Amino acid sequence: MARLSGLQRDVLSLYRKCLREIRRKPVESRDNFRTYARAEFQKNILVGKKDFTAIEYLLRKGHRQLEMYSSPGIRNIR
Length: 78
Fold this sequence. Notes:
Residues 9-68 form the Complex 1 LYR protein domain. By secondary structure, this protein is mostly helical.
């Protein structure tokens, strides 16, 4: 298996954090959160590996969204 670049590790780390945070949500809404997280990552799958500015922007955006959705007050997402 090839070594991952720093940005690739950051993207995978963000995805793992999302999955970990989903486990803290109510059982009945976990599928909605999982579907949303997967859709957000799939939406940006065509961003080129060399487009560093776009990837860094999407990472910052993803961290902000994760922080917002990690709030205990948010119990479901559609």
